[in-house]
Amino acid sequence: MPPQTSRLANDHARGLVLAIVGILILSPDSLLVRLIAADQWTLLFWRGMMTFVTLTAFLLFSHRRDTLKRFHALGIKGLAIAALLALNTTLFVVSIRHTAVANTLVLVSVAPLLAAVFSSFFLAEHAPLRTWIATLVSVLSIGDIMREVLGTSNLIGDSAALGLALTLAAVLTLLRARRSSDAVPIVACSGLLLAVAVFPFSGRLFLSNSDWLYMSILGLFVIPVSFAFTLSAPKFLPAPEVGLVFLLETVLGPFLVWLVMDEEPPSATLVGGTVLVTTLALHAVLGLRLSSAVHR
Question: What is the pLDDT of residue 296?
Fold first, then answer.
């Protein structure tokens, strides 16, 4: 195997492992947010602060004196990505607290597709016809899900989920544009920015004993590790493959919540979500086949 081909194969395998492991670790995120009884601002503060402390400790252990250089290398653009990621996290928690978990994860599953559309506009990466068709079907499916919640309390959560998909797509697009970016300091900075931003709204920062347990699992392991993995994957994987792996959370997240908390997805979400997930999966598979044919 030629060195160039071997390197591409190794990069692909690395990206696939990063994406799959990251999503598997991220899957209990929704369940843990539901299990934590503290108000959403207190939850967001500790989530951000623990993420920052954990990843900064990792950087200090891995790079020692070069840790500050890692943060400084982010620049203004890197900090902008971190700020978007902090907003993304806020929208996720608001959505999970105000609608069914299945609604949140089905709506956010369109993010990689939106990232492909954003890349077409802002990075001059050609989006094929199948992407525009999938986008149209996705918009119609999302409209059907949103129609069900108009005039209900779930509208806040579903609207936050749409914002969540848009901000995640923006983060993925910007990371793709900055292929040399190290995702770990970006996620660490996003945690600090999040904690600082929500601190005025977070009250006494009190957590019960059970909340400390769930929050520690979430903030010290699930979020920092999964985000560091999944946000590193786009550097090595094409957008269709990233999108296909991300669909794992759309299935696993609601399943875990149903298993532990007996929360059944709304009927409109089951119908619209099935169409949406099927469309995204077909789009990803077709993209991968065409990509493989080109590189043969």
Answer: 53
Give the integer Cα–Cα distance in Å for 229 and 224. 9
Tell me the C-alpha distance between 164 and 279, whole Å.
20
Q: How far apart are CA 111 and CA 126, in angstroms?
A: 17
What's the pLDDT tens digit per position in 263-280? Answer: 887 777 777 778 777 877
User: Tell me, what amino acid is at 206?
Assistant: F
Contacts of 157 (CB under 8 A, 6+ apart): 94, 95, 96, 97, 98, 99, 100, 103, 104, 149
For residue 228, give the nearest of 161, 168, 183 by alpha carbon. 183
pLDDT at 53 over 90: yes
Tell me the per-residue pLDDT of 181-217, one tens digit each, with 9 for 90 and over: 678 899 899 999 999 999 999 878 889 999 999 999 9
Both tokens of 43, joined, read 């939850």
- Output the six-digit token pair for 240: 């269709």
Q: Which residue, chain included where needed, has tokens 């492909």?
A: 116
- Tokens for 100? 């069914």
| Contact criterion met (CB below 8 Å) for 44 and 194 | yes
State whether the Cα torsion 217-228-240-178 is positive or negative: positive
Mark out the alpha helices in the chain (DSSP H runs). Answer: 3-26, 29-35, 40-63, 67-72, 75-98, 101-108, 111-122, 129-149, 154-177, 183-198, 209-217, 223-230, 239-261, 267-294
Q: Is the pTM of this model over 0.70?
A: yes
Backbone angles phi, psi at 153, to 5 degrees: -65, -20
Cα 96 to Cα 8, 36, 174: the distances in Å are: 38, 12, 25
Q: Would you place residue 72 in the very low, low, confident or very high pLDDT band (cuts 50, 70, 90)?
A: confident
CB-neighbour burial class of residue 161 (10 A; exposed 0-12, middle 13-18, buried 19+) = buried
